[in-house]
Design goal:
The chain is mostly helical and 126 residues long. It has a domain at 34-121: Cytochrome Bc1 Complex, Chain D, domain 2 (Orthogonal Bundle). It is built from five helices and no strands. It has helices at residues 2-17, 36-48, 68-79, 92-103, 110-121. Helix 3 packs across helix 5 (110-121). The longest helix is centred in the N-terminal third of the chain and has 16 residues, at 2-17.
C-alpha cells in the first residue's frame, strides 16, 4: 500500500512539474482568428471609445495617453486574471469582460493589441 501511494504521488508530481499545461510551448506560434483592429472595433470601442479616449460614464480609462509597453502590461494582466503583478493596476471589470470576450472568440495577443492602440490613438503629452 505504501509503495502504491509513493508511486501515485511521484506520477502526480511528475505531471505537475513537467509543464503539462494548455499554454503554448516557448517558440510555438499562436494564431488568432481576429486582428487587433477587429477586436477593438467589435468590443473595446464600446467602453474606450473610437479614439481610445475612454468613456467616463462607463468608468473606462483612456488608452490614448499611454504607449505600447504600458498597455501591454495591463493587457497581459487582464488576460491572465488580473494578477496585478506587472502593471500594479486593478482590472476587475475588464477581467470579467475578458472572460466573455474569449467565449465569443475575441482572443488577442497583448503585444499586438498594445501596438495597435498606440499606433492608432496615442497622443503625446503637450
Amino acid at each position: 500500500m505504501k509503495k502504491t501511494n509513493i508511486i501515485l504521488i511521484s506520477v502526480a508530481a511528475l505531471l505537475t512539474f513537467s509543464g503539462c499545461t494548455q499554454t503554448p510551448n516557448a517558440g510555438e506560434k499562436v494564431t488568432y482568428s481576429k486582428s487587433p483592429k477587429e477586436v477593438y472595433d467589435s468590443s473595446c470601442v464600446k467602453c474606450h471609445g473610437a479614439d481610445g479616449a475612454g468613456i467616463t460614464e462607463k468608468k473606462a480609462p483612456a488608452l490614448n495617453d499611454r504607449q505600447a509597453a504600458e498597455l501591454e502590461l495591463d493587457l497581459y494582466d487582464v488576460k491572465n486574471g488580473g494578477t496585478n503583478q506587472s502593471s500594479g493596476t486593478e482590472h476587475d471589470v475588464m477581467e470579467h469582460n475578458m472572460k466573455k470576450l474569449l467565449d465569443k472568440g475575441y482572443n488577442y495577443d497583448p503585444k499586438a493589441m498594445a501596438e495597435f492602440i498606440e499606433k492608432s490613438f496615442y497622443k503625446k503629452p503637450e
